[in-house]
Amino acid sequence: MNGFENREKGFERKYSVDQENEFKVIARRNRLLGAWAAVQMGLSGDAVDSYAKEVVVADFDEPGDADVVAKVLRDFSEKGIDIDEAAIRRKMEELAAVARQQLAR
After folding, report:
1. Could you say which of 23, 28, 85, 102 is the most buried, measured as most Cβ atoms within 10 Å of its Cβ?
2. Going by C-beta distance under 8 Å and a sequence separation of 6 or more, which residues neighbour residue 6?
3. pTM for the full predicted model
């Protein structure tokens, strides 16, 4: 039984580490998305970093990506930038790959 228990604990640790890593990837992706969106909206300097942080925080409103997408869409709309949800989601996928690479270093 001891070997089985050790194996089970190993799987639990791996699951925990995988979940923590995925959280970091999503947070990094959202920060990158916020920085990209800020530049698209004509922001610069500290305003880019500030907006990127707002996007990260927006992800805590509800589970999933809908809250982040809604925030960016709303902010683009307020600035008169024509972009659809599909384009934002494609950018999120692209930036998730970048975030994984950055965190793998």
Report:
1. 28
2. none
3. 0.85
